[in-house]
TrEMBL record:
Cross-referenced CDD domains: AdoMet_MTases
Its EC number(s): 2.1.1.137
MF term (GO), any: arsenite methyltransferase activity
Pfam families: Methyltransf_31
Residues in Methyltransferase domain copies: 81-228
Lineage: Bacteria, Bacillati, Bacillota, Bacilli, Bacillales
Protein name in the entry: Arsenite methyltransferase
SUPFAM superfamilies: S-adenosyl-L-methionine-dependent methyltransferases
Organism field: Paenibacillus psychroresistens
Enzyme class: transferase
GO biological process: methylation
Reaction equations catalysed: arsenic triglutathione + [thioredoxin]-dithiol + S-adenosyl-L-methionine + 2 H2O = methylarsonous acid + [thioredoxin]-disulfide + 3 glutathione + S-adenosyl-L-homocysteine + H(+); arsenic triglutathione + 2 [thioredoxin]-dithiol + 2 S-adenosyl-L-methionine + H2O = dimethylarsinous acid + 2 [thioredoxin]-disulfide + 3 glutathione + 2 S-adenosyl-L-homocysteine + 2 H(+); arsenic triglutathione + 3 [thioredoxin]-dithiol + 3 S-adenosyl-L-methionine = trimethylarsine + 3 [thioredoxin]-disulfide + 3 glutathione + 3 S-adenosyl-L-homocysteine + 3 H(+)
Length: 268
């Protein structure tokens, strides 16, 4: 993939999520091809419940932080501890950051990085509304993190890395900013078919920005993580996620080709 194509992908993704941020509405997940839908916070909470978020978690974040984006609940698998520094790759409106912030407490810190300026503004506004003083939101690309070396304990991410046109670089950057013993706890989409259908694979406008055609296989992800230096790699597909994935693109049967997975790894 050449640089121009990578830039086109980033611009397409950035444009889509700018629209989500400005409208404050989306469809039932980040992985739908529809952006302009008449969803409400109640509908978002209902969909997020299917991803593993509890009622208490959903009610503990500022109104407007949950944009219905994601394919799992990464902070629930991260085993966060008080005082840890957490980095969220593709933090959106700050939803997972605010949940993580409650777990790490006042002695900890949560940093969200997003490449969409409108999302950063929205997250900062949500942080102010919720009185969160241990969160920080930085504009940047996850392939080039605005984070110093070895300053993070845990990296979380929710259905975002599949959107990157240069995933090996994402994992190299993740490894760079993690402390020794630091860990990844990611929810993302993986492919379950040998190859995606051409009409899905080549549809950058909708299917890529909708978290579908940019997905990698488990084998590919394992290779990327190993080459970046990670150990204790675990990628666990969640077959039950097909129940909500099938609704992302009605009639396209995409649940035959992708599934949500829990991805964990550690820096030695």
């Amino acid at each position: 993939m050449n640089i121009i194509t990578e830039d086109q992908i980033r611009q397409n993704v950035r444009s889509r999520y700018k629209e989500v941020a400005l409208q404050g509405i989306t469809s039932s997940s980040c992985c739908s091809t529809e952006v302009n839908c008449c969803e409400t916070s109640v509908a978002f909470d209902s969909e997020s419940g299917k991803l593993g978020y509890s009622t208490d978690e959903l009610s503990s974040v500022p109104v407007g932080a949950n944009l219905g984006l994601g394919c799992g609940n990464p902070q629930a698998i991260a085993a966060l501890k008080s005082g840890e520094v957490v980095l969220d790759l593709g933090s959106g409106g700050g939803f997972d950051c605010f949940l993580a912030a409650k777990q790490v407490g006042d002695q900890g810190k949560v940093i969200g990085v997003d490449m969409t300026p409108e999302m950063i503004s929205k997250a900062r506004l949500n942080a102010a509304k919720g009185g969160f003083t241990n969160t920080e939101f930085r504009l940047g690309e996850i392939e080039n993190l605005p984070i110093p070396n070895e300053t993070v304990n845990v990296i979380i991410s929710n259905c975002v890395i599949n959107l990157s046109p240069n995933k090996p670089q994402v994992f190299k950057e993740a490894y760079r900013v993690l402390n020794s013993g630091g860990r990844l706890a990611i929810s993302d989409i993986v492919t379950t078919a040998a190859e995606l259908p051409t009409e899905i694979k080549n549809n950058i406008e909708d299917m890529y920005s909708g978290c579908i055609s940019g997905a990698s296989s488990i084998t590919e992800l394992e290779t990327m993580l190993k080459q970046s230096g990670f150990i204790d790699i675990s990628i666990e597909p969640k077959d039950e996620s097909k129940e909500f994935i099938k609704d992302w693109v009605p009639g396209a049967n995409i649940d035959k080709y992708i599934v949500s997975a829990v991805i964990k790894a550690r820096k030695q």
